[in-house]
Amino acid sequence: MSQMKISPETVDWECATCGRALELSKVHVAYLESRFTVELLRCPDCGLVYIPEELANGKMAEVERILEDK
Amino acid sequence: MDQKELREIENRCIQEEPAWCMAECPLHVDVRLFLKKMAEGKWDAARKVLDKTMPFPGILGRICDHPCEKKCKRGEVDAPVAISELERACVTFTASLKKVMLLPDRGKRVAVIGSGLSSLTAAWDLIRKGYGVAIFEPGSYLGGSLWNLPHDLLPKQIIGDETALLQNTGVRINLKAAITPERFEEMYADFDAVYIGQDNEIACDFGLAQTPSGRIRTDDVTRAASRKGVFAGGIPEDGSTRPSPVLNAAQGRWAATSADRYIQNVSMTAARPHEGPMKTRLYTDITGIPPLPRTPVSDPEEGYDKEAAIGEAGRCLQCECMECVKACPYLEHYKSYPKSYARQIYNNLSIVKGDRKANTLINSCSLCRLCETVCPESFSMADLCHNARQEMVRVGKMPPSAHEFALLDMAFSNSDKCALARHAPGESGSAWLFFPGCQLSGSAPGHVTQSYSYLREKLGNRVGLMLGCCGAPAHWGGDAKRADAVTAQLKAQWTKMGHPRPVLACSSCMEMFRKFLPEADPVSLWEIMAREGLPETALNARAGASAVAVIDPCTARHDTGVQESVRHILRETGFSVAELDHSREMTECCGFGGLMANANPDMAREVIRRRAGQSPLDYVAYCAVCRDHLATTGKRTAHLLDYIWPDEAGPDPAERKNPGYSLRHENRARLREKLLSELWGEKTEETDACEKIVLHISDEVRDRLEDRRILTGDIQKVLFHVQNGGAHFKNPKTGHWLAVHRPLNVTFWVEYAPSGQGFEIYNAYCHRMIIVEEGK
Lengths: 70, 776
Fold this sequence. Notes:
The complex is a heterodimer. Chain A is of the alpha+beta class. In chain A, 23% of the residues lie in helices and 31% in strands. In chain A, strands 2-3-4 form a 3-stranded antiparallel sheet, with no helix packed on it. The longest helix of chain A is centred in the last third of the chain and has 16 residues, at 53-68. By secondary structure, chain B is of the alpha/beta class. In chain B, the strands form 4 sheets. A 5-stranded parallel sheet of chain B has the order 3-2-1-4-5, with helices on both faces. In chain B, strands 6-8-7-9-10 form a 5-stranded mixed sheet. Chain B has a 5-stranded mixed sheet with strand order 15-19-18-17-16. In chain B, strand 11 (547-551), helix 27 (560-572) and strand 12 form a beta-alpha-beta unit. The model of chain B has no long low-confidence stretch (mean pLDDT 94). The chains are: A alpha+beta, B alpha/beta. At the A-B interface, strand 1, strand 2, strand 4 and helix 1 of A face helix 19, strand 16, strand 17, strand 19 and strand 20 of B. Chain A: InterPro entries: DUF7479, DVU_1557-like. Chain A: Pfam families: DUF7479. Chain A: Residues 12-70 form the DUF7479 domain.
């Protein structure tokens, strides 16, 4: 899961509610019986977490698959 | 599945059965592997195969009477492979590389009388098993009558070299030994077992029971003589006077096995069914194999030279079965065959902790049953995989992503939005019940409407209608509970409607109805059409039309009545019908069956691509899913109903696009609305607010959504969520918005911008992993 990293400088999204730029922060993610901590971009005010497309279709999908076969 | 069931299942797959040559060889030399190595020119590797099984390959490789050749499958095409000559070439051109390994000394001793091939073999096997062995040979050299063979066939030097091996391993050799009844008694007293080789005549009465021909009587398998601890071999088979070198060697080997067991005081007969020539259940298809004449020996005295030997070995068919693997891209993909898959699946189910590596293998089978149709032993991957899936669901180890999409699709089809069960308008009972199935309703709802009015016209008005899904997706996915719930609901409706006879337009529904509601005696729409005659539209549609190839769905594999009806309808409609190589009983799945396309989309794509390439003719399918899957490849494919009601099908039915998942949903829901309004004069309930959200989606994005199994309904839910205060992102550079929402088990992300009355959708993606919110 350590490879679920993203580089913040390429991300233009900002939180629509709070109007804040996103910042890297430790986030818990879970699937089936497993739980991890990863660094993801999130709104520093409301905590909304951003998952980029490459992550969802790439590493995340891969990890989901591995966990499903556990 | 327990170990016993696994064995029974494994035993059905005959791929690992011995080739005929090996089965017939009394020693079971792996002739097929030997010939493979020879054909590859790998001489040492070929020699290794002989050394592994054959005692004294230098001798036996030259003089073997090769019973294998008469069973060689190549012989059924033209002439058997010259196995014997090839063994001779191999032992001529190679030296043994074998390292002799002796087991630790057991402190027990065996006397071996005589030194023909059977005695030499017994001595060779016993010394390696850790016994002290002493040979008593009445003559003045080892080998007996081997020395009488022509020098060209068996050079004297070889006899000397090969028998020297025995001396090197520590066998005590007594030449010019007097073999008398008294001496025999001494041996019997001094040694733990005695072997008597009868390859060469020994003038001695051992006081043992004899055959009418004066040979020592022995048990066929154990070679045990009438006295405990005495074994004999080197005896021609009943009725044969010619000595068989390979049989002599084998008898020596069997006797050595028995002597070992006798001395260790264990059963001499247990687990020995495979000794000697045996039957094999192997199947090898030889149709279409071109004849190839036997390579003549390069020199009648010297035998093959290297090049000729390689050429002759290349004639070996490398007999194997692989019938199912040849027929099925799925079985081919995992690079093995059902026996090994059964083991992998068993292991997968038995895992307590660790990776379940066979999940995808289990979930990718289309359950189409082509394997069991082509298998000489009816091995069923479908049953194997289906049982495994049920087990996985039962213990909660089915990967959620494998089938959930299809199960949700099923649930949608059976929801109030799409499902319907009515008597015909104005009727209070039904003699018949049209059940078009969810896929035809999703793919071509107009055909459902037309078929329903056709049926009422032909069968009288008492034809009820039931819209919904038969439960096949849950059944295929191994979700017995969900499947049972659907079929129970279906049965209850059918009962409530007064047990009308179902008319089905889908072969998968037919399979399900026959399984769960056989008493309803379902009949296919195609059989009704063939019997009752076609509507005018069909007869006018394609007068003088060209040839088409029929695509039989895998679920109609054994339904000859349906197959015939469909062909009859096509001919009536003006087509000439061509048969694909894989049609009727041998038909292939389109990749949807068994939920293959859900669990393994890449494999499903490969399967349908292969199917699309089987004929240049236009295809006609009578399963809506086969039709739509073929359409995704660009293959010109129409549905049979496209030619019966051409007005519903557009200008060129064979070019009709696959509607995709989202439109299928819409089509089903609209079909229900339309029928309710037009036939029963009922207005349906208001649609949900979120369904009113208007989306603008380019074809490119639509294709991407289809690939990712994201429905427009999912996108509407995300946008509705945002409209009601759901969090989202904005991108000041592009002016796009990004919303996220998890309505059920999948989180959807949608990139969009307001556009006119609705939204332009730029992208969407999804994942199953959950972001755990703070404090949870």
